[in-house]
Amino acid sequence: MSILDIRVLGDPALRKETVPVESVTDDIRALITDMFDTMYAAEGIGLAAPQVGRTERVTVMDVEGAKYALINPEITSRQGSIRGEEGCLSIPDVFGEVERANAVTVTALNEGGEEIEVAGTELLARCLQHEIDHLHGKLFLDYLSVLKRRAALAKWDGIKSQYPGYIRKVILEKHTPHHSEGEL
Ligand SMILES: [Zn+2]
Q: What spacing in Å lies between the alpha carbon of 87 and ligand 1's midpoint?
């Protein structure tokens, strides 16, 4: 297992379009394992490949005890809309209210290369949309109003010097994981 460095806001990796995975190889499965390790160490509930500087179209999530590793995920349906607070492992300590579909259905490949469908509502739906956005270079800040985005970026300006080179070193601490802040 290895814990990867997380790229934070300002790293161009976060704005890159990912490349669909052609075949689910042991390298992809190793990436997924490392992404889970990194996500748990950082106490997040979701992590997408660009957040660890990779270009594969891969995301991992753990929402309310259910683990998901999704390869080439695509949203095939959206219903309703709901506002809710979001954070992001790549923009630590910055949060904002984002309007999202309240229910989504996603198709993807799993770690075995089989086609799967995931239907989620509420937090799972929000996490799916947030992570799939990452795979297309999109961040939750992009949804904020001009004023709220300006405030979020001003807050980030005071924080970002903690992450030289746009790198967040994740250190595994020995305590019980909690996901109260819900950084994705
Ligand atoms: Zn995120």
A: 7
Query: What's the 3-state SS for 123-134?
Result: HHHHHHHHHHHH
**Would you call 97 a catalytic residue per the annotation?**
no
Q: Which of 131, 173, 181, 183 is catalytic?
A: 131
Ligand 1: centre distance to CA 89 (Å): 5
86-113 per-position pLDDT tens digit: 999 999 999 999 999 999 999 999 999 9
Q: Is the pLDDT of residue 171 over 60?
A: yes
Report the separation in Å between the CA atom of 14 and the middle of ligand 1, taken as the mean of its atom positions.
9
Q: What pTM was computed for the model?
A: 0.94
Q: What's the CA-to-centroid distance between 88 and ligand 1, angstroms?
A: 4
